Amino acid sequence: MYIQEIIEFLGTFAFAISGIRHAAAKNFDWFGGYVCGIAVAIGGGTIRDVMLGTTPFWMTSPFYMLCTALALVLVVMFAKWIEPLKNAWFVFDTLGLALFTIAGIQKSVMFGQPYWVAIIMGCITGAAGGVIRDVLLNNEPVIFRKEIYAIASVAGGIAYWIVTRIDHSVELAAIVSFSVTVTIRFLAVRYHLSLPKLKQLIAEE
Q1: C-alpha distances in angstroms, 181 versus 76, 79, 115, 155, 171?
Q2: How far is 177 from 163, CA to CA, in rounded Å?
C-alpha cells in the first residue's frame, strides 16, 4: 500500500507539471494552470476508482492537491530556466504515464480484478487525464495523434503481467513496466513511430 501511494504521488507530480506547462503555453492564468494540472493529475485515477467502486484516491488525502500546488509554484518560480526545456516537456508526461500505468494495475489487482482488466485500468489511469487536459485546452487528445501513447501504456501493462507470472515480484514488475512504457514512448517520439492511419488502410483496400 505504501508503494502504491508513492507511485501515485510521483505520477501526480509529473502529470501536474505537464498539465501546468501546457496551460502556460495557452496563456492561462495561475488558477487556470492549477485546474489544468489537477485535471491531468487526477483525471485518469478518478475514472479508475469510480469504475472499481471505491473512493477516488485524491479524496483520501490532501497531499495530491498540495502536490499539484507545489508543481505550480515550481513552474512559476523557475519559469526562466524551464522555458528553454519546452521541447522536452513530453518527458514529464511520459513519466506520469508510466507511473500511473503501474498504479492503475496494482490497485485493480488489489481489488481482485483479473490482469486483462488491470491492464485496461492501467491504460485508463495513465492516459485519461491527458485526454481531459487536451479537451480543456481545446487540443486534439494526444492518444489520437500519430505518436504512440496509449499503446506504450498497454505494453507496460503487459510487461508487468509477464514479470509477475515469471518472478512473482511486484517490485521487479513495476521497474520493468516503467522501463518498457518510457522506452517505447521515447523511441516513438525520437523516431516518429506511429500506427497506420485508418485513411491509409481504407485507401489500400
Answers
A1: 29, 28, 17, 7, 16
A2: 9
